[in-house]
Write a structure and sequence with these properties.
alpha+beta; two-stranded antiparallel ribbon; 4-stranded mixed β-sheet; 10 helices; single chain
């Protein structure tokens, strides 16, 4: 045991003598460097009467060599290891091997002159395509306000639907995650439903060509239930107004609109909230 300890100490001393600093020695012996390892190395040095002057940076320890700079032809010193430099300075290195070489055959694209951009953005007197009012706008502008633009777009869409050019808004075939979640709940509770049922707005008494799509249409004891699963988009002001118009039109036609606001179910609190909402709907459904 004593011989093993002596051999180990001798190996450690050899590593320390070959090292450039206390940090290098601690990395070589222990695999990491901190206050405890440097303290241990200093203790080994004190026990063997070795001074810390052996760690002074010398040319022999660092394997420093003298080289000639290929750019300016001046001599300089560098380390003969991974950090060996080819040139004496950054300026010489850039001149010797530039990072980006300019291509003489490269043809640059002509940028639009400021004169052309000024001509495009120049304000002139124009006439609105929707309300025929005069306004000051750019060459590309066609309407005096965003209201006129949206009205014109809706009117053209209606004309295209009448003429059969386009079908208008159609229901999607893809089911969202909340909808898939509630499909499982309705099936597990043996509730019959129609997914994304289309109801024309004209049948509800609205003078519009498009249709409403009910998320889940459920019938029970002569009652017509519209179960809606609302995402974050239903919190916006414009969506709240459109939902209000939709709900009033459905309620006037003897539909019961039941909305459930979807919340995340990744956390326990979210699962508890969603469970309460489902239980409230089931109690409402069973009372009908």
């Amino acid at each position: 045991m004593a011989r093993f300890l002596i051999n180990r100490i001798m190996k450690e001393i050899d590593i320390i003598l070959k090292s450039c600093s206390i940090g290098d020695a601690s990395l070589s012996i222990y695999g990491y460097c901190n206050t405890a390892t440097t303290r241990k190395i200093r203790k080994i040095l004190n026990d063997n009467n070795i001074s810390e002057e052996i760690f002074i940076k010398t040319d022999n320890k660092r394997n420093i060599i003298t080289k000639e700079c290929p750019s300016c032809k001046n001599e300089f010193k560098t380390r003969a290891d991974k950090k060996e430099r080819t040139c004496c300075s950054i300026a010489c290195a850039n001149s010797h091997k530039p990072k980006r070489i300019k291509n003489p055959n490269l043809v640059r694209k002509k940028s639009i002159s400021t004169r052309k951009t000024k001509q495009i953005n120049k304000k002139i007197d124009k006439k609105c395509r929707k309300c025929d009012s005069n306004y000051i706008g750019t060459k590309k502008s066609k309407f005096c306000s965003p209201v006129c633009r949206s009205q014109h777009q809706s009117e053209t869409m209606k004309m295209n639907i009448k003429n059969g050019i386009c079908k208008g808004w159609q229901t999607r075939n893809i089911e969202s995650y909340p909808e898939k979640f509630f499909i499982k709940i309705l099936r597990s509770n043996k509730i019959d439903y129609v997914f994304n049922k289309q109801i024309s707005k004209k049948s509800l008494g609205l003078d519009l060509i498009s249709s409403y799509f009910l998320d889940f249409y459920i019938e029970k004891n002569g009652n017509m239930i519209d179960l809606e699963i609302d995402g974050k988009q239903h919190r916006y002001e414009d969506q709240i107004i459109s939902d209000l118009i939709r709900d009033t039109a459905l309620k006037e036609n003897m539909y019961i609109v039941y909305r459930i606001e979807w919340n995340g179910i990744n956390s326990n609190a979210g699962k508890i909230r969603m469970k309460e909402k489902i239980n409230n709907f089931l109690t409402f459904y069973n009372k009908l």
